[in-house]
Amino acid sequence: MIVTGDMYTYNNADGGGHMWNVVAMDDGENYIVDVTNCDEGTIGAPDHIFLTGCDGSVSQGYECKWGTGNAMWVRYTYDEDTLAYYDGAQLTLSSEDYEYVPQEDPDPPQPLLGDVNGDDQVNAADLLRMLRYLNGEKVDFDESVGDVNEDGRIDLGDLIRLLKILISSASSGSSTPAPISSKPGNSPSETKTPPTG
């Protein structure tokens, strides 16, 4: 949000009117962002007043400090319009600098076993690529999904398992093979159907 008020600096205690941002971040805290004063050649360059912690309060203003012994500082005080428009919680700033913490994807994509050529599908092209790989040819081959039968190695057993899955898929009329199970014999595409009568 955009706020207005006065800004005072260590080298200009008289201060003057200024506009800056208060940004609510994913940690639930609010931080000051004064882009104008982070430009090259300005008091806060390059990032001393960008998502930084400041000491103070809504009513008394906030001071951002940096440098040896915190000798450099900028103090911001909100004007009456800002205090009337926003509530105190929105204007309260964190005393600590913002620290980005990457969030883990709750549902990371699962590797597609058998997709050794990395085209996001399992088909005859993967079978051919695996055959060439097992013959010792230098081909792009994603080993992380090449162990189709999950026995800890990539060998002829994986090629045979992939071939069985593709044949089963083709005979069932499906254009996409069923997901490859973690253990041989448990794949829906390998389930035997009793003969009908």
Structure description:
This protein is 19% helix and 22% strand. The termini are far apart. It folds into 2 domains: 90 residues, no CATH class; 65 residues, no CATH class. It has a 7-stranded antiparallel β-sheet. Strand 6 and strand 7 form a beta hairpin. The protein is elongated. By secondary structure, the protein is α+β, with helices and mostly antiparallel strands. Helix 3 runs antiparallel to helix 4. The longest helix is centred in the C-terminal third of the chain and has 16 residues.
Please tag this protein with its features.
197 residues, alpha+beta, 7-stranded antiparallel β-sheet, 7 strands, disordered C terminus
How does the SSE layout of this entry go?
Blueprint: E1 2-9, E2 12-24, E3 30-33, E4 50-52, E5 55-57, E6 61-66, E7 72-78, H1 80-85, H2 88-91, H3 124-134, H4 156-171
Helix pairs in contact: 3-4
